[in-house]
Amino acid sequence: MTTLFVRHDIGDYTKWKRVYDALGPVRKEKGVTAASVHREVGHPHTVVITHRFNNAHSAQEFANSEELKTAMDKAGVISKPEFWFAEDVEVTPY
User: Fold this and answer.
1) For residue 77, what are the domain limits?
2) Edge-to-edge strands of the sheet including 2-9?
3) Which SUPFAM superfamilies would you find in this protein's record (predicted)?
4) Total domain count for the chain?
């Protein structure tokens, strides 16, 4: 499994979340198997999103997709997005 971490600043969370939710079918089509959304503590206009994929190739294709770029513009992303790709080594539920 590969996890894609995305961090960027947004102008309005409600507007951003509406566009993010509407992109759900595209995420599924591009291979996302699970996702989570986080807001940075003390900085509510900074979001961190994780997307899990079965492989790194799918994660990289999604990160470079025109659909994602268009959605970010529409959602009001106001900073350059930061992307990190990580291979899942261990997940331990408690």
Assistant:
1) 2-87
2) 34-40, 43-53, 2-9, 82-87
3) Dimeric alpha+beta barrel
4) 1
Mean pLDDT to the nearest integer, 41-47: 96
d(CA 59, CA 5): 10
Does residue 94 lie in a domain region? no
- CATH number of the structural domain spanning residue 6: 3.30.70.100
- The answer to whether position 43 is within a domain reads yes
Q: Judge whether residue 6 has pLDDT over 90.
A: yes
Q: Tokens 């470079």, residue?
A: 64
What angle separates helix 66-75 from helix 13-22, to the nearest 10 degrees?
150
- The amino acid at residue 80 is K
pTM value is 0.91
Q: How far apart are the two ends of the chain, measured CA to CA in Å?
A: 20
Give the whole-angstrom CA distance, residue 40 versus residue 7. Answer: 9
